[in-house]
Description:
Structural class: alpha/beta
Strand content: 15-25%
Largest sheet: 7 strands, parallel
Helix content: 25-40%
Amino acid sequence: MKWNYDDPVFNDLLALNPWAIDLWAVRLDLIRNKNWNVNSINQGGNAETRAGLEQFFQKRSDATLARLVGSAIDHDSWAREVGLIARDVFADVDVANAWVGSGRQQFSDGSSLANTDSKTEEYTIGQFKADFLLLSQASLRALEIKEHIDISGKVFPIGLDLVRAKLLEPLNAKGTKFGPFSDHSSVRFNSADFSQSEFFDQAYFTMTKFEGFARFQDVIFHGPASFHATLFSKAAFFKGCRFEHSTGFCGAKFEEAVDFSEAVFNGDTTFEDSMFGASVEFRDSTFPGRVYVGRIPKNVKQRILDANHP
């Protein structure tokens, strides 16, 4: 199937996102001038695209927040319709497997870099996928949110983008289902409860700061999970978690207690360069996958070695 920049699916998504209609017209002009270059998820590859996305991201975040705190179109109905559209789009194997964005610049030695060309001669299936995600993903990117946010039990079919958000009140995300493309990197949380939630693909918390408690009890991470360079200022709870893919805590800092008891680490796991300030618990935790424990306190390393390694 040929997916074009003016495919009718975008009209379906714009009907759910009327705030984006004028901004989508800007995108259309840039495409016609061969200047539209989204080279990865939520990433502009050239100055023209970044300028177009800046206002788009702000309005997308404002619209998501309005749906979550209650508006004429609430989040649940929006997510249900988006999920149905996404199901049909990603049923196309070519879309499902496509690189998100305009592709990468390939070099003779086999290396590659993100495409930063000012001109894009061809609208690719990867660009279609990136554009689809722009309209179908919920986002609170870069917002400073002063009100209490309760997203417990909600579904985000294309994931939730929280990059660089500041949540000044506790977040309740208990029992929430996060679809693919979720990114919670560089977020500042007050405290957050993700217990009993599911992440159906990537779960990035890279360089995020939890100023209060971080609760991840009984969470299932179906895809890669990253807590690299994450700061846990208060106690962190990962009891009963299932990490089905690779998991990274490189450079993470636990200033108070952390509980990994009964957690299962099925993929490769790394705690290298992690810092631990108080009690650390790995009681009845299981590591079917490999685990890397370089440059961490001896007592913590021993607790990991004493865990179950089938």
